[in-house]
Fold this sequence. Notes:
- By secondary structure, this protein is mostly helical.
- It has 13 helices and no strands.
- The chain has helices spanning about 5-20, 20-30, 35-55, 65-90, 95-100, 105-115, 120-140, 155-175, 180-205, 215-240, 245-250, 255-265, 270-290.
Amino acid sequence: MPSPQLLRWIPILFVLLWATGFIGAKYALPFAEPFTVLAIRMYITLGVFLILIRLYRPQWPTRQGALHSMLVGSLVHAAYLGGVFAAINAGMAAGMASLLVGLQPILTALIAWLWMGARISGKQLTGLLLGILGVAMVLLLGKANSHTLQFSYLSLLFALMALCGITFGTLLQKRYCARIDLLTGTFYQYLANALIMSLLALLFETREIDWQPQFVAALLWLVFGLSLSAILLLMLMIREGEATKVAAYFYLTPPVTALIAWILFDERLTVWGIAGISLTAYGVFLVIRNQGRTPVKATKAGER
């Protein structure tokens, strides 16, 4: 188990890495269709994980644990990533997609309360509501001349699929896969995602790729920055923390993405945007501070 000092820094690093996902999609999608991009990304990632597994020799899960991990992978990776990429490719602005997926902490908290018996304090509920208000301020009022409300019904369907995927996948990971080794469990998650993305690419896309340097650079970042580093940090956070607290960190993704876009693309933030970032940060603080709640216990279904 990582030291408490290290655990304090993991969420910060996770948010910084996770926030680059929309940026990576923006750079990669002009050169290939979304399911094709994700399929290639997954196969490269599987190769990297096989090397790491060979080096560290972690314990493989049981058949039941592997099936649970593949189910989580089909939600956290296939439904979420596929939904986000497809929504942006179908015309939804990245800001709008980020806003819809930003509803995840509220949905996670409600489901954890109804399904897993988690308790939510008044301050944590206030933090959740402040978080979503801050995200809305950043995305809807934070940028001048923004088109964050642009979307079609098809892109909306993809974004909602992404929202449900990351929400239910996070809860299932906490309940059934918390005791599975991070490397081997995540390997099975990516295996499920690779199979699903390959099937979707075969059925609905031309699978043509323009191998420009920008595409290669974006693909490598999506593999090593997101699929390797960020996902392992997320799985570690889910294993060591409460579902509601972990989900609250996703509130920070749209504001941090906005800051990165300001640095890379000179997308200036308004006073409302800066205020939204501050409000979001305070909302997350209310959620993650120690309230003395009893964490949700993981079952040993996937433990070997």
